[in-house]
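Record type: monomer structure entry
Structure origin: computed from sequence
Chain ID: A
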Amino acid sequence: MRSMQGNTTLGDAFDLLSRASCLKIPYSTNILELLNNTPALLPLLSGTEYQLDNKFQSCDLLFCLRLSDLMSLVRSLKPGQHPNDKFISEISRICRLCAGNVDVLNMFDHIWFECDAVPTSALSLFLGIDSEGGMWSVDKELSKMATALNLLDSMYGVQCDRTKLFNIGRSMVEGLGRGTIYEVGFMGRSQKEAHVKLLISPHSSYSQENFIGESRYFSSEIDTILKHPKVRQVARAMIDLQCTVNISVSVYASRQKFAVEFKPLYDPSKSSQFDNLWSQVRDSLKLSTYNDCFSLSMAEAHCEEEGIRLSSRLHHIKFYLKETGDIGTKVYRDFRVTSLY
């Protein structure tokens, strides 16, 4: 049995878990070079995104890094050896810019990269902070936006309507139970579809139920999402088990869109309840048991190989309103690689 330490890449780890557990990970061919050059133990967390409206669609790849590990990733990716790989080149450029930006390093502690499957092949990034860090204030929350937008300008020269963005950010953090801006992102789609995204979480002193209630009053779009029967069923099951609820707003040049996310708490001692929860979700959404992201035990797929543990479980679910008026659904699986030493 070969050692999984050292030179093992994220691509190696994905393939090993697929073989060991029969978990399907239908990642797109456009991320192969990135997977095969990213050390398996470097990301804090990786994951895959599934658009449930399209059963045969390849999943998008996401991975999260500590800001202190950015240059380690650049050294591993060796962008000079892959000049034609869009993801490797662009991620390396962003890592260098973030690592050299003192304001970013002082304000945030992690960054997410999202690599879209073909044909989109877009790269998105999200700067975030895990800790509420002292006293809450509107100015403190808006300073996260300012820092992220300054970085965005330096990266892409994107001219955002800052007044509009700050007005939206202020109204959300004030109107949603002392909301915390957990992440600020830029979705790098085509010019028309490019947008800034804010992920808002309730302050730790605020209940999830109150946060949901205030969210419905805040936006008719959020209210429409939460009133839908399948969303109500999922929300009820999630809250009964204990979960985190987040609201995201995507700010485009000419419009804004909201989404609601539910992330259940995972307790290893209650894995059967976690498994049953996702079974309820699957049944509420009327999904086939053969759907890729639900293809195995929902609690956890895992294996161990020479000092490394690989595991994957369903992580969270997102609901949004499509232009047709129907409810769109995305499900996310996490992927964890940890050393046993």
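Annotation 1: Residues 10-339 form one domain.
Annotation 2: Residues 26 and 67 are 28 Å apart (CA to CA).
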